[in-house]
Amino acid sequence: MAKYLGPKLKLSRRENTDLYLKSGIREINSKCNIKKIPGQKKNRKIRFSEYSLQLREKQKVKRIYGILEKQFKNYYIKANKLKGNTSINLLKLIELRLDNIIYRMGFSSTRSEARQFISHKLILVNNYIVNIPSYQVSLSDKIQINKKAINYKCIKLAIKLFKNREKPKWLNINHKKCYGTLIKLPDRLDIYNNINEQLIIELYSK
After folding, report:
1. What gap in Å lies between CA 145 and CA 155, rounded to an integer?
2. Minimal CA–CA distance to 31: which of 41, 23, 39?
3. Residue 2 placed within a domain
């Protein structure tokens, strides 16, 4: 499976925002100058075209969730076939990925760490091992950590760091027993406010 192996903070600098690619043990501003775009010369003003704004928004969302182009486009095609607002459907499909749910529940400090847990068969869905990060979680699905992994230091650290993040209202989480349940589908307000999903739809609609 293809994945990005380069410096993660460089991606955040390129999109000029925190992409949540690091654990959060230290603030991202203490690690790099997030306002400095890689390769940009000092005092040089960059003019963004309509296309470049749409492209950057798509790249930002892809990098936040760790999705490559082909898979991301497939999500758009599927969202476009569903009833309702295509842009909202797109975000919901991505939010319901198993790796994202693990991160949202606070069992991993990053989505890439969640994907590693899943590939190592440490995650159970309704008491069955699932090793596919893109698995779509459904209502009432029970997500839990394998018993042998409950005491892993990285999981305990992730749960500790989760206290500094906003708890999703659409998830029921029990950190003591390391499990959670999807109690309702996420609304637009439950998803990141710094995403302009309409720009992505405009890009793919051309």
Report:
1. 9
2. 23
3. no
The residue segments making up the domain with residue 145 are: 97-184
Please name which of 73, 69, 121 lies closest in space to residue 98, comparing C-alpha atoms: 121
Amino acid, res. 60: K
The answer to whether 120 and 102 have CB atoms below 8 angstroms apart is: no
DSSP assignment, residue 144? Answer: E
User: What pTM value is reported for the model?
Assistant: 0.82
DSSP 136: B
Give 65-123 pLDDT, tens digit per residue: 989 999 999 999 999 999 999 999 999 999 999 999 999 999 999 999 999 999 999 99
For 46: left if phi > 0, alpha if psi spans -120 to 50, otherwise beta; the answer is: beta
Q: Are strands 179-182 and 142-145 parallel, antiparallel or unpaired?
A: antiparallel
The rounded distance, in Å, linking the Cα atoms of 44 and 56 is 19
In the structure encoding, which two tokens stand for residue 104, read together?
A: 């949202």
CB proximity list for 185: less than 8 A, separation 6 or greater:
92, 96, 139, 170
With respect to residue 3, please indicate whether it lies within any of the assigned structural domains: no
Q: Are residues 103 and 180 in the same domain?
A: yes
